[in-house]
Write a structure and sequence with these properties.
Elements: H1 3-13, E1 17-19, E2 23-32, E3 37-44, H2 46-61, H3 66-70, H4 74-84, E4 94-98, H5 106-109, E5 121-127, E6 132-137, E7 155-160, E8 162-164, E9 170-172, E10 189-191, E11 196-199
Parallel strand pairs: 3-11, 6-10
Antiparallel strand pairs: 1-2, 2-3, 2-4, 5-6, 5-7, 8-9
Length: about 200
C-alpha cells in the first residue's frame, strides 16, 4: 500500500477516536514489509503532537513549566519526553493495514463510564452469543485483549464497574474502593493491550 492508499483505507474503514490533545486516532492492525504482524497500531496526524511539543518547549524557555522549578533541567526533560517515550513505527515500514480485532467500536467505548477506583477501570462485556467476560485497564482504552474465539466486533454491551467472580457470576465493583473482594479472579480479566503509534501526514 502506498501512503495515499493507507490514508484512504483508514478514513474509509476505521472510525476515529478523538482526543483533545492529540486529535483523531485511527486504530488498526498492520503487516510490516518483512511480514511481521502488529495487531495494535494507532494512526494519527503528526500536527497535534508537533504543536503540543512547540508549546511546551516555549513554556520552558519562558520559565512557565513546572519542570523548570523542580529540577532545573526542564527543557531537557521535555525534549526527552517527546522524543523517547511511546512505541512508534514508521509509515514506510508498513506494507498493509487491516482492521484490528482488538479495537472496541466507538459506540462500545462510549458505554465505559468513569474510573472504578483510582487508576483502574473494571467492567464486563457481553458478547453476541450472550456470554460475558471481564475486562480492565489502568489508563488505555485503545485496544483490549480478547477471550479466545472472540474479536472486538463480538462485544454488544458494557456492564460498567463489574467483574467476573470465581463462582462464575457477574458482580459489581465497589466504586472508589482499592480493595479487591475475596471472590475477584484477576486471571479472568482481559487487560488493555500495548500498541504502537504511527504518524501520517495528511491523515
Amino acid at each position: 500500500m502506498l501512503l495515499e492508499e493507507k490514508i484512504k483505507f483508514l478514513k474509509e474503514n476505521v472510525e476515529p477516536i478523538y482526543d483533545e490533545i492529540c486529535g483523531n486516532g485511527y486504530r488498526a492492525s498492520v503487516y510490516l514489509k518483512d511480514g511481521t504482524y502488529l495487531p495494535c497500531v494507532r494512526f494519527r496526524n503528526p500536527d497535534h503532537k508537533t504543536n503540543q511539543a512547540i508549546k511546551r518547549l516555549d513554556e520552558e524557555r519562558k520559565g512557565k513549566s513546572i519542570f523548570s522549578s523542580t529540577s532545573g533541567h526542564g527543557y531537557k526533560e521535555i525534549v526527552e519526553l517527546f522524543v523517547t517515550t511511546g512505541n512508534r513505527i514508521s509509515e514506510f515500514d508498513i506494507a498493509r493495514i487491516e482492521l484490528s480485532p482488538y479495537a472496541f467500536s466507538k459506540e462500545i467505548l462510549s458505554q465505559i463510564r468513569g474510573e472504578t477506583s483510582m487508576g483502574w477501570t473494571g467492567f464486563c462485556a457481553k458478547m453476541t452469543d450472550g456470554k460475558v467476560f471481564g475486562f480492565g485497564t489502568s489508563f488505555s482504552f485503545d485496544f483490549f485483549q480478547m477471550p479466545d474465539g472472540y474479536t472486538a466486533k463480538d462485544v454488544i454491551e458494557i456492564i460498567n464497574h463489574s467483574y467476573y467472580a470465581k463462582d462464575g457470576t457477574i458482580k459489581k465493583h465497589k466504586i472508589g474502593s482499592t480493595m479487591q473482594r475475596a471472590d475477584y479472579n484477576a486471571e479472568l480479566i482481559n487487560l488493555s493491550r500495548p500498541f504502537f503509534d504511527c504518524y501520517l501526514k495528511g491523515l
